[in-house]
Every structure is written in structure tokens, then in C-alpha cells.
Amino acid sequence: MGQATHPDSLRPASSHSTGAHAPSRALKHVRGHGGTLAHVLGALGMFRFRHGHWPSRLYLYPETLAALVQDLTPLGFYRIQRRLDVAADLERDLFCVDDRGNVSIYRVQAPSDSASIDAAAVWLGLSPPAACSPDGRSRPAATPKPPR
Predict the structure, then answer these.
(1) How far apart are CA 90 and CA 115, in angstroms?
(2) Given pLDDT bands bounded at 50, 70 and 90, which one contains residue 27?
(3) Angle 36-130-1 (CA atoms, 0-180°, nearest 5)?
(4) Could you give the CA distance from residue 128 to residue 10 in angstroms, rounded to a whole number?
């Protein structure tokens, strides 16, 4: 099962946390634990890493699509649909495609790059570009990491 999410963070609370959480930049668009969203962001980031641009279509199993809808607010899901054609498919899950025929199949077991996940969240409009905290240090990423 998933872990509880702190109200000010998209990342699940861990036993290593100090209790101080940076305010989430994407919290207003996420209402679940963000596990499915993290995998979708990882799939999009992997496509961009491999092909140098973002995909135009995303195919998901129907149950993955339903979980993604549950992870997001209506505005959050709308923001994804503005950038991507999202389609339910019984044979393909986390399958990204562009108009030129480039394909990327995300493997849940593969490690995801946090920078790619954050870049995908920014591209979709779920998170503003990384900002600095008042003391000049960059803030921790607010997007969820795929569960292991």
C-alpha cells in the first residue's frame, strides 16, 4: 500500500524526515498519493531523454488511466490533456508516441531520473519551473517519485 502524504508535500513522509517540509509547487493539482502520476511523468521524461522532444500521445491501460484521474484534480488532468492525447489501450501501458513514429515504452522497474520527472511536470503545467528559496538555495523537487 502507499504511504501517507504530508499535507505540504507530494512525497510520502519518511522516517528520515525532519518534520520541515517545503511547500509543494504542484499540490493544488494532485489529490492522491501521486504514484501513478510519478510513473506517467517518468514515462514522458524518458521519451524526451531518448528523442529530444516531448511525445504527442500517451497510451495507458484503462486501470492506469483511472488511477491517474484519481491522482489529479480535474484542472490537473485538463492540463495533461492540453499537451497530450491520452488514450486507454488494453495492450499498451505507459507507452509514449510522437507524430513521427518515435516510441518509448516505460518500464516501471527502470530507475527514473528526478530531473526528467520534474521537467515533465513543468511541461504539463502541473508545477512551475524550479525556484530558489529565500536563502538562495534551490528548493527540493515537489513532484512525486515512482514508488519502488
Answers:
(1) 30
(2) low
(3) 25
(4) 14
